[in-house]
Design brief:
Elements lengths: L8 H13 L3 H18 L22 H5 L11 H18 L3 H10 L3 H14 L8 H12 L2 H12 L8 H12 L9 H10 L3 H7 L7 H8 L1
Helix pairs in contact: 10-12
């Protein structure tokens, strides 16, 4: 066994997860023995141990220690469709840091669901992951997006991107909105020149007109000059 102490948050979390998942033989036998002795003394049979359900998270599970320290976002199932996208992206950042397995990703995501979203998952999880099927993150995300980010919502975001104009926004604010909405229309910005053209077309005239003669085809350069 290595003497190296875990240094990163992910390593410490994984170390605690491993220890939590591997109870010692003596502690297991001792726990069962005490439970049986107490049950015999009281004359009441001990309650059955509930099966582990990968779709339902339990507070106090050591697997949540690391991700709770990162304060991941919660999701209620209401509001702008963008909230669903931001929630998934926020969780995936935490998962990458903690080196979570596919099953742990699903479990931790479900733990962060509240209100309407939690109710939806309780009613849906057996359809998404039938009994005996190991949860996979991509499968969960697909089911989640089908519920909370419909094709109609995607079309609306694409239309918003196509009609985006700087207006009263600063250049930095406009660029941030451009980047945010462009993810819903990836085919429209695949060509770097077309991406630059769409960006400059949305600038206010007093910023756009002096830049047009330069015929700048690099997006980053165009953004820098517009600032």
């Amino acid at each position: 066994m290595s003497d190296r102490e875990p240094r990163t948050l992910g390593e410490r979390t994984l170390s605690s997860v491993t220890r939590a998942r591997t109870p010692t033989r003596g502690s297991t036998r001792g726990g069962r023995g005490r439970a049986q002795a107490e049950a015999s003394a009281s004359g009441v049979a001990p309650p059955p141990v509930p099966p582990v359900d990968a779709g339902v998270a339990a507070p106090g599970d050591p697997r949540f220690e690391g991700i709770m320290q990162l304060q991941p976002p919660k999701f209620t199932g209401t509001g702008d469709p963008e909230a669903a996208t931001r929630w998934i992206e926020g969780l995936e950042k935490a998962f990458e840091l903690l080196k979570c397995s596919e099953e742990e990703k699903v479990t931790l995501a479900v733990y962060q669901m509240q209100e309407v979203a939690s109710t939806w998952w309780k009613a849906t999880r057996r359809e998404v992951f039938p009994e005996g099927v190991v949860p996979e993150w991509n499968v969960f995300v697909r089911a989640f997006n089908n519920k909370y980010f419909s094709s109609c919502a995607k079309q609306l975001k694409m239309a918003e991107f196509l009609h985006l104009r700087q207006g009263p926004m600063t250049v930095d604010q406009y660029e941030a909105k451009f980047a945010e909405l462009s993810q819903y229309a990836p085919r429209l910005i695949q060509d770097p020149e077309e991406k630059a053209m769409r960006f400059i077309d949305g600038l206010r005239p007093e910023l756009k007109d002096p830049l047009v003669p330069f015929d700048i085809k690099n997006y980053n350069e165009l953004y820098g000059r517009a600032r």
